[in-house]
Known about the structure:
Number of helices: 15
Radius of gyration: 34 Å
Strand content: 15-25%
Shape: elongated
Strand order of the largest sheet: 2-3-8-5-7-6
Structural class: alpha+beta
Largest sheet: 6 strands, mixed, barrel
Number of domains: 2
Helix content: 40-55%
Amino acid sequence: MVKWPIILNIAKTHLLSKFKQSTIAALGVTFGIASYITLVSFMTGLNNVLDDLILNQTPHIHIYNEIEPSKQQPISLFDSYKNSFNVVHSIKPKLNQKKIHNALPIIKYLNNLKDVKGAISQIKTNIFYISGSIELGGNITGINPLEEARLFNFKDYVIKGSPKDLKNTENSIIIGSGVAKKMSLSIGERVQISTIKGDVFPLKIVGIYQSGNTEIDAIQSFTNIKTVQTILGEAKNYVTDINVKLYNIEKALPLAKNIEQQFNLKAVDINTANAQFETGTSIRNLITYAVSFTLLIVAGFGIYNILNMLIYEKMNDIAILKAVGFSGKDVQMIFMSQAMIIGIVGGVLGLLLGLLFTNIIHTIPYKTAALPRLKTYPIDFNIWYYFIGIVFAIVSTFFAGYLPSQKAKKIDPVKIIRGQ
Length: 420
């Protein structure tokens, strides 16, 4: 029967008698766990920000009417030319293909699906910005501002003004930061919008938009969907795009395929649209976890070396313990207890130190034009990282202490006493 009070007392005495070595072993665990917590929290926080930069603005499913050449050439409609060989050039797509027919019933249908968090309409068109003598080509997107903010975090990228101002102000616009800079425009001023047909409309600037992509910010602007319909001279049911947000992103691909078959429209899921980005995210996460666990493994080898040396220095103590009646298993438990004490104490201190380091990093100011809503360095305070850290500390010290304790268990006290 293992005598735990006596074994723990002897283990404590051994650790205190070699306080310097015990402290170094515990610090090895502490800094290993602290480095792991700091690195994985910072790197995953940064990865999450980069993911949000793309994924927050990207619908889970983007539905639109793909402009394609006419599949049936006009000459094929005449029976007299049915058996003839015909060569027809420059048959252009129809202009009405850009519009989604029956868009409002489709949106209503999608919003009734249990997997859909929200489906909203958009209108995208090319325009020219005119301010004084400056004329700049760009794009304008008609949106439902509040729904866009609810589903796609639109408000996070409006660095001046608010989506509410776009909804509440008639004939208003939120322009890209690049457009505002090039044309020296600010909130409260007016900018004239010219369509490709040459119609000019003055719009009041109620906000500045910054996506983090310089090329987009140099051409993009947003206005109320009704305003775009008025500018284009289209009816209230005119819609060019439908964006869908799901509760579960994994269901985007099958639902997109169903939409294409059911409504004969082009539906692109988020994974297909951002395949290259997803690959980059996976590689970054793989590197993060690989480096983090390497730190823990290196700390484990350090503990093994220290415990191994401790056993050689305690040969006389082991001989005496066995001579007075302690079994080999008792001796093994003594050294295993030492390893576990080092692991637990070092692991807990490592968690506290890691939490301190991450909080310090999280308070360091960090501003970049690519991420306007980011004020400090990003940190992911995930409780699982701390759980993994303490479990790894205990497991690594267990195995680091197991092999040396096996040696201590098999030591013959007679040989040691004889050698003295």
